[in-house]
Amino acid sequence: MNICILLGKILSKIELNFLYNSKKHISLVEFQISVSNPIGSNYKKQIINIKAYDEQADNMYRKFKKGDLIILEGYFDGKCVNLEYVCKVK
């Protein structure tokens, strides 16, 4: 497993979805963040897809919104980052 720590701004609305046919998870949120990637003396913006399940999904839905600056810890799983921990940057 790999670990990634990202600092970025939430770009999309956070919507809570329920997984009815899943034996492993109950709820899911999917959203995107924008991060700056330094290349030489310039900064290039990248969009990262994030997924959060169950308790983290509920936490994201209740406490965060589009435009919030967040720092998160998770692991890269194919095309997205699965969220483990998140907090808002003031």
Give the tags.
about 90 residues; mainly beta; OB fold (Dihydrolipoamide Acetyltransferase, E2P); 5-stranded mixed β-barrel; 1 helix
Count of domains: 1
Derived structural class: mainly beta
CATH topology: OB fold (Dihydrolipoamide Acetyltransferase, E2P)
Instruction: Report the CATH C-level class.
Output: Mainly Beta
What's the total count of β strands?
6
Average the pLDDT over all residues and give the rounded result.
91
Distance from N terminus to C terminus (CA atoms, Å) equals 30 Å
Summed up, the helix count is 1
Based on CA atoms alone, the radius of gyration comes out at: 13 Å
Q: Segments where pLDDT lies below 50 for 5+ residues?
A: none
CATH superfamily: Nucleic acid-binding proteins
Largest sheet: 5 strands, mixed, barrel
CATH architectural type: Beta Barrel
Beta-strand percent range: over 45%
Shape: globular
Question: What is the percent of helical residues?
Answer: 10-25%
* Order of strands across the main sheet: 1-3-4-6-5
Summarize this structure briefly.
By secondary structure, the chain is mainly beta. It has one helix spanning about 55-65; strands spanning about 5-10, 15-20, 25-40, 40-55, 70-75, 80-90. A five-stranded mixed beta barrel has the order 1-3-4-6-5.
Overview of this protein structure:
The chain has 90 residues and is mainly β. It has one domain (4-88): OB fold (Dihydrolipoamide Acetyltransferase, E2P) (Beta Barrel), CATH 2.40.50. The protein contains one helix and six strands; from the N terminus they run ββββαββ. It has one helix at residues 54-63; strands at residues 4-10, 15-18, 27-39, 42-53, 69-77, 80-88. The chain has a five-stranded mixed β-barrel with strand order 1-3-4-6-5. Strand 3 (27-39) and strand 4 form a beta hairpin. The longest helix has 10 residues, at 54-63. The radius of gyration is 13 Å and the shape is globular.
